[in-house]
Structures are given as C-alpha cells and as structure tokens.
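Support request from a user on the community tier.

User writes: "When I paste my structure tokens into the form, the page sometimes reloads and wipes my input. The last time it worked, I copied everything first. Here is what I submitted, just in case something in the input itself triggers the reload:"
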C-alpha cells in the first residue's frame, strides 16, 4: 500500500474518460488499496482512480468519517440505474480542487450497480452524503469536476486561482 500524489486541476488528465475494468485482478486490488490509503491520508471521503492518474472506472469511498474504524467501500464499473427526481444541495469539495467548495444540486437518492473488491456484482440504494459522493466520484470517471456544475464565471475564477497557487508553489 502506498500514498500517491493526487492530481489537481486544471491538469488535463482529470478531463479523461475512464475505461471499464475488464477483470478484478491483484493489480486492480493493489490500486484500490493505494486509493484508500491516499484518501484517508488526504483526508477525504472519496477518490476516483483518475485522481491518481489511472483512467479506470474505480471509486473508493468512506463517508462514515469514523476515526476509530475505517469502512471503505469499493465501486468498480459503477452505473446509476435509477435517480430520484428530487434534488439535494450539498457543499462539495474535491481533493483535486484544493481549498474550494461550492453548492451543487444532484438527485437526492440513487440506485447504483457496481462490481466490488472481490469481483462480485452488487446494487445499492444510496441517499444523503453517500448518494452525493457516488455521483461526484462518478463524474470524475467522465472527466467532470464539481466546478463544471457552476457558472462559467465562478468556474473560471476558481481555475485562475488554482493556476496562481500552483505557480506560487513552484517558485
Ligand atoms: O476529491 C474527491 O473526489 C473526494 C471528495 C469527495 C466529496 C466530498 C464532499 C462532497 C462530494 C464529494 C472529498 O473527500 S473532499 C474532502 C472532504 O469532503 C472531507 C475532508 C475531511 C474530512 C471530511 C470530509
Ligand atoms: Zn472530486
């Protein structure tokens, strides 16, 4: 297991569309182990493989935020099979957009099917923070960031500040 660097916007890697995982091999499980360790170290409640530069449809989450007990969830090739019409607003953050948060509206409940850590098919009904995070992470698999849900004025302001911060960090 290793903590890996998280790619930050506006790096074009984050715009890539991730590919489905053909088979859950030991290499895929090793990547998921690194993702979980990186997520907890950040700290965050979710991470998509593309944030580590791996364009595969893999998401890890732990929305319980229990410091005593870690309870990671693994979503390989996730697909939303149903979404509620009613929306919830959540102030989202992203480890690839450090220091910024913004309100985003998304369906408040979803059903999502996926393959788990052991290669088994699963389907769950999610609401609350889990529903928000699954949708946020699945956006990453399509090359979409939460700032892409904002107006172009707000998004461009955030991107300009991220570029300035990364130039200052390189000095
Ligand atoms: O970068 C990511 O995709 C992870 C992101 C997940 C997320 C959070 C909130 C709404 C939608 C998606 C994060 O984990 S941001 C950091 C965060 O939420 C957090 C950090 C420390 C403690 C608790 C939460
Ligand atoms: Zn994110």
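"...and here is what came back when it finally went through:"
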């Amino acid at each position: 297991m290793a903590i890996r660097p998280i790619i930050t916007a506006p790096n074009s890697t984050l715009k890539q569309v991730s590919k489905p995982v053909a088979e859950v091999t030991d290499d895929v499980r090793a990547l998921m182990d690194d993702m979980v360790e990186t997520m907890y170290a950040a700290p965050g409640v979710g991470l998509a493989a593309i944030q580590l530069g791996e364009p595969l449809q893999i998401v890890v989450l732990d929305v319980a935020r229990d410091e005593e007990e870690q309870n990671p969830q693994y979503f390989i090739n996730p697909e939303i099979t149903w979404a509620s019409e009613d929306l919830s607003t959540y102030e989202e953050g992203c480890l690839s957009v450090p220091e910024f948060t913004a309100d985003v509206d998304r369906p408040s409940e979803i059903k999502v099917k996926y393959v788990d850590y052991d290669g088994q098919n699963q389907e769950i009904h999610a609401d609350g923070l889990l529903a928000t995070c699954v949708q946020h992470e699945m956006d990453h698999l399509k090359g979409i960031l939460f700032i892409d849900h904002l107006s172009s004025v707000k998004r461009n302001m955030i991107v300009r500040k991220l570029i300035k911060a990364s130039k200052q960090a390189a000095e």
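Agent notes: The reload is a front-end session timeout and is unrelated to the input. The first strand starts at residue 46 and ends at 48. The pocket of zinc ion (ligand 2) is lined by residues 94, 96, 136, 140 (CB under 6 Å). Escalated to web team.
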